[in-house]
């Protein structure tokens, strides 16, 4: 559950953010942690979780959900979300504002668009999508998270 300070009416008014990641070699997990750090520094209540350890109550309460995976392809073509089945195994994201993020090595092609469609098929209202270069995660993940949070009103 979110560790949030409650206001006088017993309800936390912090934006609740869940960052979900599917990662094989750690880059997408690292991106998720960086995004979580930016969100926390911006004053939100954040939980960062792998696809295999989702907290249903936490997800149900979330105002904004980041979902990340890696780019799978043949470098020049065939780009798609890596481990798509594992992402499809997370609970449905009906009525959730969702941000799709990915990590890649050289060329993400149109993987972020494909990932957006996958998440929309999973019920998500995708508000932003981007693939991040694995060698520049510190800057690219932080910039992306900051942009998304700045465009989130409540
Ligand atoms: C089977 C396979 C295919 C990949 N295809 C691409 C690709 O087409 N383009 C690219 O830029 N990176 C590609 N990559 C690199 C990964 O997307 C990149 O290393 C990513 O950051 C891995 O994320 P992870 O550490 O969270 O597993 C591929 C990696 C693997 C294992």
Residue runs with pLDDT of under 50 for 5 or more positions: none
> Mean pLDDT, nearest integer?
93
Chemical compounds bound to the protein = flavin mononucleotide
Number of helices: 5
Give the fraction of residues assigned to helices.
25-40%
Named CATH architecture: 3-Layer(aba) Sandwich
| Amount of beta strand | 25-35%
**Distance, first to last CA:** 20 Å
What's the CATH H-level homologous superfamily?
Answer: Flavodoxin domain
Described by the principal axes of the CA atoms, the overall outline is globular
CATH fold description: Rossmann fold
| CATH class group | Alpha Beta
Write the layout of secondary structure elements.
Layout: E1 16-21, H1 27-41, E2 45-50, H2 56-61, E3 64-72, E4 80-81, H3 84-88, E5 97-104, H4 111-121, E6 125-133, H5 137-150
Parallel strand pairs: 1-2, 1-3, 3-5, 5-6
Antiparallel strand pairs: 3-4
The structure holds flavin mononucleotide.
The site of flavin mononucleotide (FMN) has 20 residues, from α1, β3 and β5.
How would you characterize this protein structure?
The protein is 33% helix and 26% strand. The chain is globular, with a radius of gyration of 15 Å. It has helices at 27-41, 56-61, 84-88, 111-121, 137-150; strands spanning 16-21, 45-50, 64-72, 80-81, 97-104, 125-133. The protein starts with 15 loop residues before the first strand and ends with a helix. It has one domain: Rossmann fold. It is α/β, with parallel strands linked by helices. The site of flavin mononucleotide has 20 residues, from α1, β3 and β5.
């Amino acid at each position: 559950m979110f560790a949030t300070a409650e206001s006088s009416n017993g309800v936390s008014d912090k934006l609740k953010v869940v960052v979900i990641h599917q990662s094989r070699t750690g880059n997408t997990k690292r991106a998720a942690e960086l995004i979580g750090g930016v969100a926390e520094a911006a004053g939100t209540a954040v939980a960062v979780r792998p696809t295999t350890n989702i907290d249903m109550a936490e997800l149900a309460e979330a105002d904004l959900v980041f979902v990340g995976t890696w780019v799978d392809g043949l470098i020049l073509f065939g780009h798609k979300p890596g481990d798509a089945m594992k992402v499809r195994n997370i609970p449905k994201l009906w009525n959730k504002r969702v941000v799709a993020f990915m990590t890649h090595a050289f060329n993400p092609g149109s993987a972020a668009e494909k990932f957006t469609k996958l998440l929309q098929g999973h019920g998500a209202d995708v508000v932003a999508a981007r693939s991040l270069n694995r060698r520049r995660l510190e800057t690219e993940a932080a910039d992306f998270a900051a942009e998304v949070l700045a465009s989130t009103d409540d």
